[in-house]
Design goal:
62% of the residues lie in helices and 10% in strands. By secondary structure, the protein is an alpha+beta fold.
Amino acid sequence: MPESPNGTTPRPPAFRPTMGRIDAVVHLSFAVLMVASGVRYVLRHSPADNLWTVALAAAVCVLYAVVAVLAQRRQPWLLWMVALVLAWAVLVIAAPSFAWCSFALFFLSRVAFSGWIASLAGAVTAIATAIGLFRLSGDTDVAMLLGPIAAAVLLTLIYDRIEHDAALQRQLHAEVSRAQERLAASERAAGIAVERERVSREIHDTVTQGLASSLLLLEAAQHSWPEEGAKVEVQKAGTLLRQNLADTRSLVHELSAPGLDSGPLPEALEQAARQYVDAVRLQVTGDPHPVPAEVRHALMRVTQSAAANIKLHAQAEHASLTLGFLPGAVTLDVFDDGRGFDPAAVPPPSDKGGYGLRAMRQRVEQLGGVFSVESSPGQGTVVAAQLPLPRTEPSQANPAPSVRIEKDTI
């Protein structure tokens, strides 16, 4: 971390509350130790010796207070700290009774400075304390000389390790924050892409398919005009356009088709198919039971899209829907006897179309289902979808009777 011109290292905002609590303890300890050391010195020395020592101790206290205030306000304190360390060195050498205050001064130096300046201030404090204690022992106790130096080295290593771990923690926190921001951005982008894809499928399966079918009806009416059959084609086109208008309004509000959330599923699928294909045969197998809204929605859209493809491309004479209810799934097969095609040769989607099969497959697979298309030129087409259903307890299952519905509508 770079140092500022005054030799200090700026702390990040998250680090300041912890440092503030440590500073308060250090300052309180310094005040208590200074008072205790001053009383001890006054009681053990003559008034002649007390005067200048007490004055120097008072000067050290003033310098300490100035440095503490400047450090709290994040203002330059280099010169004040140098003066404090030098005054303290003179005081502890002259009056070793104040040696215990060295701990508070050491921590203040580490809080105020960083790098080599902090180490230098700590070294001066330790050496001065060692000299003072050595003099106090009558220059005979080597332990008094080496003890403060060894303690200073040990505290320096511990403090450096703590600062290193704190810096590493801040770095990891910053990296995690950046990673979370990138993840949030990617999730937003993915969500936007998914929503755009969903809306495009809704528009394709309702408005686009309906408008394409209406266009075919109007073109047929134009070719047969003014024959009586032209009026029927125009009426069909008008009905389909009105249905498209209703679907568009539903998309604007809730992106749901009219009648999607109510009514029996077989009848709803039959009605969706008959918007595009007049002749539809509906067959239901298994025990009909309610299905989740998202499964119902997917089946509706697959039926609409498949029926629209039959109207636009298949030139089929017959079409049928087979809805099957299995214990853990629901199946849908849409068959036509039209001209068929090669599924492997379907061109990619473009501004001219080609989104129908892809949209159907995406709908089914997003719900964990299986989608397939079986077709060949001249052999008709089968669009099949199987969607899983959530498991229900036997007591909660709908005890609907087994039915089989077959009806032809022309």
